[in-house]
UniProtKB/TrEMBL annotation:
The lineage of its organism: Bacteria, Bacillati, Bacillota, Clostridia, Eubacteriales. InterPro entries: CheY-like_superfamily, Homeodomain-like_sf, HTH_AraC, HTH_AraC-typ_CS, Sig_transdc_resp-reg_receiver. May play the central regulatory role in sporulation. It may be an element of the effector pathway responsible for the activation of sporulation genes in response to nutritional stress. Spo0A may act in concert with spo0H (a sigma factor) to control the expression of some genes that are critical to the sporulation process. It comes from Ructibacterium gallinarum. Keywords: DNA-binding, Phosphoprotein, Transcription, Transcription regulation. This is Stage 0 sporulation protein A homolog. One of its GO terms (molecular function) is DNA-binding transcription factor activity. Transmembrane segments: none annotated. The keyword rRNA processing does not apply.
């Protein structure tokens, strides 16, 4: 069943549309009706929506075209159908430009509406992944485990309920567990030329070989990525099997190189959840830049996670001396850039041995992260977010990005995004847009400045895009807002 919103400024029309078709029979559930586009946008940010049926003109707020543009830019998977009483080429052209999937002219016939949503249902069905029963069960179990690890469950009872619904044994909640990661070299070539049964099936085969059914361990995958995979291993007696040796045996048979990494033992899944965001942050599923992640973990005082990130980045048995020296140079220069106010002891690294460079840097990472941890104080990362906010306020007129601001405060973009929302209650992009719109409103009160000049002064290059954003933010176009200020 697909979730559908109906948006029209006429309440009576909205009510009629709810009953004009047997929506359930067509495969749609009407999740809400709205008489203005802004309320529909607010609903979309908090709820799952698959399709929107919207009028093209709605006075006093964003139009259907504004709504379609915002959705096309931010929620491209949502299908938009425009209704209009206007046979205007400009409207139709705007709809096409924003990937509207249908344009219905009022008065809308039953047949046109029925055919449009029958076609839309078929189109949405094609997007759905074709899971077989085993893959679907695995997906449900991964989702359940992620919710527990991300602390999305509020109690032990709720965690047990989630496990039962996902067909996971409840007893795993009490077992000691390990976070395990397997990495593969030249994996795509192996899949294409040797395996030929798909990435997911390879991982299933690997799990079964590593953890035989009668060995007393339980294994559940978390991620299946391009060159690596991670999974949870539960052990009733707390011991960890020799996964590295078994993985090497399996991969030698197949002609594949494999590297296994394992965390220390956690008392149970809830203990692992305390460190999970940092374990996930050093996983390529979340970031492509291990150095960025390492610097973020050092800066935020996450000592153990920083050491793990460093070991992922710097593997002395698999790295050249030149690469080791490059990593050392980048790491030390980067730490100096954000730790000028701290008395940090930097290693001299007067050696031509990659293993010795690794040893010295490993000590440096641990001691430096610990020093930052000791100096965080009760406000935690608050000073970094305030520094990011200052940078935005001083540079909103430039084409700044999350990555640029993250670099300025020496945080990984993923960390900055998470901490920014926690501290301010706003997403990074929403805060940047608000600062720009407030400044634009201030400049519009000065009648001698042209609108296109204001657009450039607040960081936008496209005047039409600026018009639409300003109207979404204030309910008025820049011209309307300026006229209102004169009254």
């Amino acid at each position: 069943m697909y979730n559908l919103l109906i948006v029209d400024d006429e309440l009576l029309f909205c009510r009629q549309m709810v009953h004009v078709l047997d929506w359930e029979a067509l495969g749609f559930h009407i999740s809400g009706t709205f008489t203005d586009a802004q309320k529909a946008l607010d609903f979309i940010t908090e709820n799952a929506v698959d399709a929107i049926l919207t009028d093209i003109k709605m006075p006093g707020g964003p139009s259907g075209i504004d709504l379609a543009e915002y959705i096309n830019r931010n929620y491209p998977d949502i299908s938009v159908i425009i209704m209009s009483g206007y046979r205007s080429f400009d409207y139709a052209q705007a709809a096409i430009r924003n990937n509207v999937c249908a344009y219905l002219t009022k008065p809308i016939t039953y047949q046109a509406l029925y055919e449009t949503f029958t076609d839309l249902k078929a189109s949405l069905d094609k997007r759905q992944p074709a899971y077989d029963a085993q893959e679907l069960e695995s997906l449900i179990q991964r989702t359940c485990l992620h919710e527990i690890l991300l602390k999305a469950v509020s109690s032990r009872a709720q965690a047990e309920e989630k496990c039962l619904s996902a067909r996971l044994p409840v007893r795993i909640l009490d077992f000691p567990c390990f976070y395990v990661r397997a990495e593969f070299a030249e994996f795509d070539d192996f899949l294409d030329k040797k395996w030929k049964h798909g990435r997911e099936r390879f991982y299933q085969s690997l799990w079964h070989f590593l953890i035989p059914a009668d060995c007393g361990y339980l294994c559940y995958p978390l991620f299946a990525e391009k060159q690596a995979a991670s999974f949870l291993l539960f052990s009733e007696n707390g011991a960890l099997p020799d996964l590295t040796e078994r993985a090497q045996q399996y991969c030698e048979i197949l002609g594949l190189r494999c590297n296994i990494r394992t965390t220390p033992q956690y008392a149970d899944l809830f203990a692992l959840a305390e460190d999970y965001e940092h374990l996930a942050a050093i996983d390529p599923e979340y970031t492509k830049n291990s150095m960025e992640t390492l610097l973020s973990l050092i800066h935020t005082g996450k000592t153990e996670a920083a050491c793990q990130a460093f070991d992922l980045l710097f593997q002395p048995t698999e790295i050249t001396l030149q690469k080791a020296q490059d990593i050392a140079r980048t790491l030390l220069q980067s730490v100096r850039s954000f730790a000028a106010d701290k008395s940090i002891s930097y290693p001299l690294l007067n050696t031509d041995d990659a293993k010795e460079i690794h040893r010295q840097l490993s000590i440096f990472v641990r001691e430096t992260a610990q020093q930052f941890r000791d100096g965080l104080g009760p406000d935690g990362y608050e000073h970094l977010i305030e520094k990011a906010q200052r940078y935005i306020r001083e540079n909103y007129a430039k084409d700044i990005t999350l990555k640029e601001v993250a670099g300025f405060v020496a945080l990984n973009p993923i960390y900055l995004s998470r901490f920014f929302k926690q501290k301010t209650g706003e997403k990074f992009i929403d805060y940047l847009t608000r600062i720009r719109m407030e400044k634009a409103a201030e400049l519009l009160r000065q009648p001698d400045i042209k609108v296109y000049e204001i657009c450039s002064r607040v960081g936008y290059h496209n005047v039409q895009h600026f018009y639409r954003l300003f109207k979404l933010y204030t309910g008025y176009t820049p011209t309307e807002y300026r006229a209102q200020q004169k009254e």
